[in-house]
Amino acid sequence: MKTIRNIFFITISLIFSFVTLSAQQVTGKVLSENSEPLIGVSISVKGTALGSVTDLDGNYSVDVKGLNDILIFYYIGYKTQELPVNGQSILNVTMSPDVQQIEQITVIGYGSISNRDVTGSVKTLRKDEFNKGIINSPEQLLQGKVAGVNVTTASGDPNSAISITVRGPGGVRTGSDPLYVIDGFAINGSANFLNPEDIESIDILKDASATAIYGARGANGVILITTKKGKEGKSSLDFSVNYGVSTLARALGVFSPNEFRKQVTAVGGTLQDLGANTDWQKEITRSALTKNYNLNLSGGSNKLLYNASLGLQDQEGIIKTNDNKRYTGRLSVGQKFMQDRLKLDLNLGVTYNTVNRPSIGSLIGDAISNNPTFPALGADGRPVQYTGISNPLTTLELEKSITEGARIIGNVSPSFTILKGLVYKLNFGVDYSNYTTDNQSLPNAVPLRDGRLETFYNIGSNRLIENYLTYEFKIDKHSFNALAGHSYQKFFGQARAYSINKFPINNIEPIYNPGLGQELTLANNRPTGSAGINELQSYFGRLNYQFNDKYLVTATVRADGSSKFGANNKYGVFPSFSIGWRIMQEDFMKGNKLFSNLKLRAGWGRTGNQEIPAKITQAAFTSQVGSNTSYPLFNTGSYPPGTTFSRLANPDIQWEVSGQTNVGIDFGIFGGALNGTIDYFNKVSNNILLEVIPSDPVQPAGTFWTNVKDMEIDNQGLEFALNYEKNLGNSWRYNLGGNSSFIKNIVKNSPYSVIPSGNASGSGLTSATINGYINNQPIGTFYLKEFTGIDDKGLSKFRDVDGDGIISDKDRVALGSALPKAIFSFFGGIGFKELDFSVNFNGVSGNKIYDNTANSNFYKVRISKGINVTPDALDYPNESISNAAPVSSRYLKDGSYLRLNNMSLGYTLKPSAIGLGKILTGARVSVTGQNLWLSTKYNGYDPEVNTERNINGVSSYGIDYLSYPKAKTILFGLNLTF
Amino acid sequence: MKKIILILAILMSAFVYQSCTKLQETILDETLSVKLSDQEAANGILAPVYGKFIDIFTHTNYFALQEISSDEAILPYRGGTDWGDNGIYLSMHQHVTTSTDPNVKNTWGHILQGISRSVTAINTLPTLKVASSKTYLAEARGLKAYYNMLVLDLFGLAFVKDEPGNPSVILRGEKAVEYIKSELNDIINDLDPTVGPGRLTPNAALGLLARLHLQSAVWKDVYGNPSFLPADMDKVIEYCDKVISSGKQALSPDYFAIFGNNNHDNKELIFAVDQRPDLNGHNRLAYFSLSGDQFPLPEFPNANGTDGPAITSDFYQTWVKANAPIDPALADPRFYQQNISFYTNPADTCVAAKDFKIDRGILRGQQYGLLRVNGAFVKCGNGSLKVGKLFSVTRNKPTLAVDFTEKVDFTVAGSDYSTGYRVEKYEFSSKSASGRNFGEADISLVRYADIYLMRAEAKLRKGDAAGALADVNTVRAARTKPAKPLTKMDLETLFQERGFEFYWEMIRRSDMIRFGKYEGAWTEKSNTDKSKRVFPIPQTAIDGASNLPGYLSQNQGY
Questions:
Q1: Is pLDDT larger for residue B125 or for residue B34?
Q2: Rounded to an integer, what distance in angstroms lies between the CA atom of residue A198 and that of residue A409?
Q3: A interface test, pick of B4, B16, B24, B43 with most A CB neighbours within 10 Å
Q4: ipTM score of the complex?
Q5: B265 to chain A: which residues are within 8 Å by CB?
Q6: Measured between CA atoms, how close is B502 to chain A, in angstroms?
């Protein structure tokens, strides 16, 4: 509406400027607070019909009647200024933004509302607030930016899984990631296929009153991603190039060659010294180059808006041969018809990826363990072959895994205004992905390898159709906005795997001709596959009510049905209710100098987590020839396919339920310069879905799935966010902000004495578990034997908790959790004229990490055998060189950290200043550093780590095992706008 | 306005088109119904009942529970790097196993699933019109009884379940024994004598009944002193007599042929796990104990041992004392069989790949075998394979010889990779595709020698030492190059003899309890708690039953 008014003004003033006789003229330039020219600012002469608008360079000239006239400068989003001419013929003006006036729009699911009308806990992050640098997945854009949201990148692998937890995990199983919705299209899993450059804003719905509109998928929070759209009256072509160099941020502190020589002998081992000085970690890593190109085309008239983009990111991993290429294309079109009553929005995105990945675990395992006195390369420049140890450079040559595929996502959403305020909208979307992974092991003579090729095919699709009506109306001081709709979504997934062994040694890679394989047996190469369909059908509604601009009420309800739910529980109903009180609007606040904004919010809602495994409500029996399902009943002939029950039916199975209460306050002080939010929440999840053992142990399948009604997982927390922005007026401006959250997670009424998770990895550690979830302790708890030192025989001592004189599983105790007690971040920026500088810090505290890498690699036995270790292995001088290293608190470490996540310096050039004013409208150069500084006590590669070691789908947390090390990156960027 | 309505209608059609879903779950990758002939259905419902054998009778499950808990096997934390497994093998040997032991849990789970599969088969078979349904039904019931015997022996309880939907009735002690006994007696006449040893035959059922009557003194009062009733002993003798008089079994002259790849037709086997390379076979019992630097198959340079369990020096000393002054390898054909000629002829350093076989029985001292360098075996000039002294190359100790020592315990020195004499009783499959898979040899569960030795024990416990002696000597004399006949018979001698005959055949723990030896002391084991005669019920099962107080209670002492 404002845009229309603006155009109206411009048109009017244009007309008048032509028809009026000129008396005298004032000229000048209108600049923004960033000294950028403002185009289309309307200038009118007070009390007259005279006026003008600024041109492309911000210049204007206006006729005035006399030199005592007053000029009015009007521009949307800026404070209107009235300036007396005072006899000058040149009048330059800098406009300042009107904080009150910029209406922050918040996307809330099936619509958007003004930020000031939000009653739930929602955080909107716009693109200029995102983290900067090489971004592989949208989650990284918001790490540390949103209170209550914990983003953990599992490792330094550019393709690493990223876990994002909104207000603490509410279940024990995997699948506690939030729901992602891209331009109104809910997808399955993460949005990591998006080009971050295509994202305009991200809205994070945190509390249940906000997420309940997504019902059975709302319990873990909802992340709404809005991609870039065209803007009316402004067409531009943006081109950006970024070049980055990444290096290993922190190597593991294994002994240097000289130290190694000394220590092997000192502990009584036999030193095999081949005289070289090899840094094996250096051998497998490199300075990796990342190239990133983006082209964005955008524009629009009052009927048609468009935005089109192409992106390419070619990223090398810091581990040799690891390459990641991402090609993206995205198109967004909006068109109006029928006197603007029919509006059509269309979004189409395509991503094509190739990932080349060596076998990370074995490379790192070798690199941190190999004898550093052994040369990596021989005189012929080829990797040397050793007996007993494997040269990781040979692994790099022989083993690789290539994943290649594409994903296409598109949705079209026409909307039609039936009556004034009553709009019908259809949303139809399709999402399809097809990825192939080839794991190839080349045949080789020395060392002898047979060669093998495994191929995995994965297909996924997702179709959505939604119909909804919104009705907006106002009666006197009461305004209403109502929504009602229906949604149907169908997901399909399919996975297949094939393999073949024994390839001839020649120059043909098995991936290009699998038929050269010479061995194919059902026992070794049985193809595997699975497929599933999941359907969701929902009915939803929302009512927003406002009284007198002071009191806000929102109520939502959603009924969700899923094919995954049991026959007895097909539909779940998820209501929510919230209120807001804009205290600022009250009469008693009039005349207050302190606050510029003050709003109180409170809400309650119930949501669900429907991410339960498919098929678990139904019994299944399979009929197949398998090693333990069939048996040779006869001496000859084929084996009978055995019919076995693999699962018990439970038609009562339903979603996990989460009820959440939220109370929050939004405030602005110092004339809007300091804005803040404080939220308290209490999230109680129950109906926890577990795979339980039946009370009668004689069962066809050892376990069955059920919702444990009494079991609870509680998350209680406090969130603070502050942001201070100040424009000093003398070309200096700065901003400072930060947020922190404190979450207490606890498990209650679990029917199990312990739910184990976190399978330990490494030789000698089979069957030991690291995490264990027990009553009155948080999820992510480390449940371990407590190491108390070394006894006089040189062997490990553990606390005998039950005092029976034997150290057993019964002596395990809860020793902290991988979930941080506090998550915090702070950021700031300084700008001076064309220069801008920003920093982002983030960190966690109160959490632990289990260093499984050290547990299985760095202990005294190993150094005595000539295997490299870190100095930690020699912490106890009297430790025996045969003391075993079982899983215990000895390897449990403090995981707190503070990281300089990214830091960026940019310079915005005026193209006209360098004579390119006719070609360019904008140019910017920047340099960004990522992960430049880290403070932590943790001595693994990086404290932000999460090696997946779940047991039967029960999530593990905070385990570090041969993780891909993190990189430190410097990125140079150039942005041109035409 | 008409145009508007038209557009609305078009838009709404999409709504109608999609909105009528019933949300029935479509299952694409599993069968919920299969069309089978009655014969196929009968085969398909019986085969899985046997199918659990391969999961139960494996190295880390039943073998670990029956052997590592005894004086026959010990598995230290090898070199501080291998077989640590959270200390479960140390606990197993020291009788301090806890209810969270994963091997105990898995063994329990597999056996109970076997019972459940039997129940399914028993309820399905009567609905199928096939000639063999009577036999099949008898086998399913017999296996249910056998699985219950295993649960009773390991955990001290049995499960009576006739209908899949009804909860099991849990029996302990005498009631459990009587239940299993009556089940076996009910079905024995319906079994087919021609389907052994892989399936349950009348002889197999007789063998199990004999074992039941012999062990029932323990099972009826598991923590007390077993009192062997003459009536039970008579039954043992009666059942053993029946097996012997059936004429279907014979003692194998070649002792190691009982455990060889072609043992399926060996008449010594009465009841066994029928291993087939292309279905369920595995070499675990063969490679488990070998050194990580022993490569038994010329085709597979990656198939090695694991430096798993060894025999205790206590058990070894029983061989030495029984045969003194002659070395047991020379005195008793059951102790050792040489296949690598290098041991006696050091000049014989080249062996054609097809002729290479590793030694069998109990392996002592320096080991010789195929030499692996850079992942391939060293060859002689003529293309045959070089045989030489083995070193701990794969252990990163290339100068440390693979020299099996008598001493093996949980000390640092006693836990090294090569400590302890090893057992290579079962033969490695020649059909393997990886060296580790595709086992061929049937795994013995009941064999003919045990019929003689059970009868001997029953006679002895009834006071007939002479009859017992004769039975024992029958077995000794049956082997090629037989061990000297024994001259006297008492319980101590018989217990030792059972060790010599059945070492590592997954029966030692039961034997030790029956002979009152289980609370004794041997290497690294001093626990005398009688509660340890049965294992703890897995904690997960106790947790699972916690909603029914008193239904499934933990065994005493855990």
A1: B125
A2: 14
A3: B43
A4: 0.92
A5: none
A6: 26
